[in-house]
Each structure stands twice: as C-alpha cells, then as structure tokens.
Design a protein that fits this description.
Olfact_rcpt; about 350 residues; transmembrane helix; 12 helices; GPCR_Rhodpsn_7TM; mainly alpha; 3-stranded mixed beta sheet
Length: about 350
C-alpha cells in the first residue's frame, strides 16, 4: 500500500483562496449584462496621430513637467522653512502649489508614457481613478484662487481687521472646506459617468480621462450627466470666478485711492499677473465644461485643456513670485544660508 502524501495546509489554503477569488461573480456579471458594457480598457488618442511628433512632444512636456515640479516643490519648501512667510497669504499659496503639483502628476506621467507607447491604453479602473483625482484637484485649484482673492481683499480693503478676520483657524477651515467640496464633486461626477455604457467604441478622443469625451463616447442617455456636470461647474467654477472678480473690483478701487504713483504701479502689476492666471484658468474650464456634449470638439478641447492643466500649474509659481519681494527675499535668504553651510 502506497504512502499517502498530505498536502500542506498553507498550500491548500492558498489554492482555495485563489479558486474563490477567480470564481465569477454572478451579481457583477448580471450588472455588466444589464449595462451592456464590455469595456475593460480605454484607448487614449493623445494629442496627435503623427508619429514623427511623438518624441519632440515627449521632450517638450517632460521639460514642462520638470519645471512644474521644481517650481511648485520649491515654493512649498520655501514657504515651509521661512518663518516670515507663515502668513495666511502664503499658507494659501503653499496649498495652491501642492494642488498644482498633484494636478500635474495625475496627468503628466501617463501622458508622457503614451508618447512613447505603441498602444496608448488605460484600464477602466485607472481611467476612473484618474478622472476622480483630476476633478477633485481642479475644484480645489479654482476654489483656492477664490479664497486667495478674498484674502487679498481683506488685507488691502480692511487692513485693520485682517489679523482678526483671517485667523489661523479660519484659514485651515477654508482649506478643509475647499478639499471637501472637491471630493464631493469628484465622487458624484465619477459615479455618474462610470455608470454609463460604453458599447460602441473604447477610444477616448483626448490625452486623459475627462467627462466630455467619455460622455461623447457613451451609448447611453447622457442628459442627466450633462445636467450634473453643468450644475457643479456653475456652482464651483462660476461662483469662484465671480468671487475673484468682485474681490479685485474692490481691491482696484482701493488702490486707486493710493496717492503714491509708485504704490499704485506695484499694486496694479501684481493684480495684472494674478488676473491673467485667473482668466486663463477659468476661461478654459468654462469653455470646456459649460458647452453641450453635442458641440464637443476633440482638437479645440485638447488645446483648452493644455492651458488649465499643464501650463497654468507651471506658470503659477512665476506669477505669484515674479513681483513678490517677500518671496524673492526669502529665496535669497535660503540660498545664502545654503551657501554658507556648504
């Protein structure tokens, strides 16, 4: 009689676990059949179909991404290590730099990979995650600009009440509220978008997963999705833009009362840089998201997206420090300290 070989319990346990994991889920299969959705991955069309442009575009956007990382990372580090910059204005600016850093890192790595990849695919789950994070940080960026404009309004128009009004507690609450709104918008729009069926094609006419191209791709009725997207865009983007404009109207009217011509020139130059960034950002976002899906144009939307997703995060550190003597002085102190220590 042969010997009986016993299977170790650890191996048996792993086998049963793997068997259980790989068993088809009847509920998920039923839902998939009900949704008529068989898409496991999407293909991103990218910026261009011309193969000869892929490497030059890769180099260009790699450079932009590098500048974005260095600029925003440097701004965060500088504000953190310099006690003189521990004020509400720079607290919000540090959060904006962090937002721009995350915002770019959600899009750039996959975009750069696709320039060199033969198959520009992204999994269904990765697409949902990318869109969710993108929406959250896009909202955070818009709302932070509104908060920063309000902070400047209080500082210039009500300087005696500034310390009391913009307390440390209020600043933290405002930033927490901004992130909360971004997460809520992101979750709702992502859930609504990925409940749709994608049964005709899986090619997204964009360089990342965004709502308009996914709605254009879907074979479901997208009217509710368009209403939800329009409502959130109006509530967040338009309200933020109006807040910024009203704040600057009051700021400019106060600046005009300054008797010193030099003081007016400095204040107006700072406002000009800030308003340029605001107009570019909000103009592009409103253009992309407040149009009906039927008028979606892949080429125009790609160009508009490049402004608020890739160029603005790169330019923001320059915009907010170019005419800012406090940031320049802090940078000089940091460089001097670094050179002395070395």
């Amino acid at each position: 009689m042969g010997k009986c070989h016993h299977i170790p319990l650890s191996i048996l346990g792993r086998y049963l676990l793997l068997t259980f994991i790989t068993l088809p889920d009847p509920c998920s299969e039923e839902m998939e059949r009900g949704n008529h959705s068989e898409v496991a991955e999407f293909i991103l069309s990218g910026l261009t179909d011309h193969l000869e442009l892929q490497v030059p575009l890769f180099v260009m956007f790699l450079l932009i991404y590098g500048i974005t990382l260095v600029g925003n990372g440097g701004m965060i580090l500088l504000i953190t290590i310099d006690p003189r910059l521990h004020t509400p204005m720079y607290f919000f600016l540090r959060n904006l730099s962090f937002c721009d850093l995350c915002f770019s890192s959600i899009i750039f790595p996959k975009m750069l990979m696709n320039f060199l990849a033969e198959k520009k695919s992204i999994s269904y789950t990765a697409c949902a995650v990318q869109m969710s994070l993108f929406l959250a940080f896009a909202d955070v960026g818009c709302l932070l600009l509104a908060v920063m404009a309000y902070d400047r309004y209080v500082a210039i128009c009500n300087p005696l009440l500034y310390t009391v009004t913009m307390s440390s507690r209020l600043c933290k609450q405002l930033v927490a509220g901004v992130y909360a709104v971004g997460l809520v918008d992101s979750m709702i729009n992502t859930c609504f978008t990925f409940q749709l069926s994608f049964c005709s094609s899986n090619v997204i006419n964009h360089f990342f997963c965004d709502i308009p191209p996914l709605l254009a791709l879907s074979c479901s009725d997208t009217r509710i999705n368009e209403i939800v997207m329009f409502a959130f865009t109006c509530c967040i983007t338009v309200s933020s833009f109006v807040t910024v404009l009203l704040s600057y109207v009051y700021i400019i009217s106060t600046i005009l009362q300054i008797r010193s011509a030099e003081g007016q020139r400095k204040a107006f130059s700072t406002c000009t840089f800030h308003l340029t960034a605001v107009v570019l950002l909000f103009g592009a976002i409103i253009f992309v998201y407040l149009r009906p899906t039927s008028s979606y144009s892949k080429d125009i939307d790609k160009v508009a997206s490049l402004f608020y997703m890739l160029l603005i995060p790169m330019l923001n550190p320059l915009i907010y420090s170019l005419r800012n003597t406090e940031v320049k002085d802090a940078l000089r102190r940091a460089m001097s300290k670094l050179l002395n220590n070395s």
